[in-house]
Amino acid sequence: MTTLETLERETLAAIDAANDDAALEAVRISALGKKGAISELLKTLGAMSPDERKAQGPLINGLRDRVSAALAARKAALGQAALNARLETERVDVTLPVRPVGMGRIHPVSQVADEVQQIFADMGFAVAEGPDIEDDETNFGKLNIPPEHPARQMHDTFYLKPQADGVRYLLRTHTSPVQIRTMLQQRPPIRVIVPGRVYRCDSDQTHTPMFHQVEGLVIDETTHMGHLKWVLEEFCKAFFEVPQVRMRFRPSYFPFTEPSAEVDIQCDRRGSELRFGEGKDWLEILGCGMVHPKVLENCGIDPHRYQGFAFGAGLDRLAMLKYGIPDLRPMFESDLRWLKHYGFAALDIPSLAGGLAR
Ligand code: PHE
């Protein structure tokens, strides 16, 4: 009898002392497993005489039941303790401020390029591109600016070392060479805009050696200056987000357009911010004109059948005007503080569903 009592005491103590599931399982196996102490005792019942079995049966079975119950109780207690510990460590403090997510910003020039493309896409313009390194003939010659033409002096060109074959490469000084490339590749009707980098050897508050332009080109059989005015007016209203804007076309000169004009838009400079679509002041925003017949001819397009217009504006300048950026130079200095201040959250890009009436 003492052995049963001792076995019970020791087993219950071991159950109590088991601190995790593995230790508890070890105790269970040593007591109730196939070869466990209590299982062995149960096996002896079969060999006993009926009287002996009557006396020992309830004792051994009782032992087994109490040990089983103790095992179950300890298992439940351990489970509860583990759960409590997990809840303790995994507790979510909903009063904590959200951790900031480091998101990049869209550069104002990229933002404005997207806006401009969007507005012109609504008017049926495709986007064309050309290389930054351009040959002299495409940047100047075919645009009716022959060598020694005084207009070349206005362009402060970065030239590359002359090639053995005589072709002179340069960093394009405007996006107009893409007019040439487009007209050499496509037949009219043509309707494209060309956003891109251009280079001029110049640097001060309003000039950087690299800056951005957006060119426009429309060629077909009936396009005239009235269309040019309408397109630019629709663009300015959509871009500056005003219902009306007055524009002034001042006669000007570009070798590749005839007639040529510079366009001013109405603005109000009183007060701290520049406002568009109101006021008595004027601000120059782009150059434009009807594509010169010689340029069409240079591209193999019959000027007696086709005509059209072109315009060119500074993208950086448009960004500065619309978003109140006072100095051009920091645009290209990659200072993150500047970008954080003037940049746009990725989701501010106008959606494709937007239209002129935005
Ligand atoms: N290419 C001209 C410039 O850079 C701008 C322009 C483009 C003028 C198209 C007329 C037509 O100054």
Describe the structure.
- With 358 residues, this protein is of the alpha+beta class.
- The chain has two domains: 2-89; 108-342, Bira Bifunctional Protein, Domain 2 (BirA Bifunctional Protein, domain 2, 2-Layer Sandwich).
- 40% of the residues lie in helices and 20% in strands.
- The strands form two sheets. Strands 1, 4, 5, 6, 7, 8, 9 and 10 form an eight-stranded mixed β-sheet that branches. It has a two-stranded antiparallel sheet with strand order 2-3.
- Strand 7 and strand 8 (275-276) form a beta hairpin.
- The relative contact order is 0.11.
- It binds phenylalanine (PHE).
Brief description of this entry?
The protein is of the alpha+beta class and 358 residues long. A hairpin with a 2-residue loop joins strand 6 and strand 7. The C terminus is likely disordered.
| CATH class label of the largest domain | Alpha Beta
| Helix count, DSSP H or I runs of 4 or more residues | 11
Number of domains: 2
CATH architecture of the largest domain: 2-Layer Sandwich
Helix content: 25-40%
Structural class: alpha+beta
The overall strand count is 10
Beta strand %:
15-25%
Alpha-carbon distance between the two ends: 95 Å
Q: Looking at the chains present, what oligomeric state does this protein adopt?
A: single chain
Element string (H = helix, E = strand): HHHHHEEHEHEEHEEEEHEHH
Q: What is the averaged pLDDT score?
A: 90
> Looking at this structure, what is the CATH superfamily of the largest domain?
Bira Bifunctional Protein, Domain 2
Low-confidence stretches: 351-358
Query: Could you please say which CATH topology of the largest domain applies here?
Result: BirA Bifunctional Protein, domain 2
Ligand roster: phenylalanine
General shape = rod-shaped
